[in-house]
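#structure-requests
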Amino acid sequence: MIEVSVLNMDGNEVGKFPVDEALLGTVVRPALLKQALVRHNANQRQGTVRTKSRAEIEGSTKKLYAQKHTGNARRGNLRTSVMKGGGMAFAKRPRDFRQDMPLKQRRLARANAILAKILSNNLKILDTFTVATPKTKEVAKILKNLNVDRSAIIATNGIDRFLWRSARNISRMSIKPAADLNAYDVLSKRTLIITKEAFENVLKTCTPSKVKESDES
């Protein structure tokens, strides 16, 4: 059992939150986290690029000059890739880069990413995180109280429009509902800031896991 400090918006500790590491995968699995990151980046690729091959270029198919005894480099017709305006030697074609990952594996990767944040002291659990009006200055003050001076992601319980409008202009800062978090969101930022209520809901979606013998070695 891991105990994580619960902070208020002034940065003061107001309690402890016990976390069962079995819910977060027990140990950090680097291979699983890498697979989740590669999958996320691959799924962001459009794959719509396309270039013309020599067969799709307009022009004569006649050989320009003899292969030998001209003193020039050997070449074929106008469509060849060595000519200006010719086709590509290995023309690019649209392709699907998407990778699949089972739901249980995706959830385990997210839980494992949160465990990595806990072990590196980069998880901030707040008892509440609200602003009365959409002011960036208010959120910046709270981040300063939490000693967050690098990239961070704020995970809330549901959509808080005032908080979202207040944090969106801060550099290297993102905000999402905790239910929409994935492993990439957690790992791409230095600090994870999450409300206590949102963290409890995340843990409810986690399944206890046991470490296999191969993982321990």
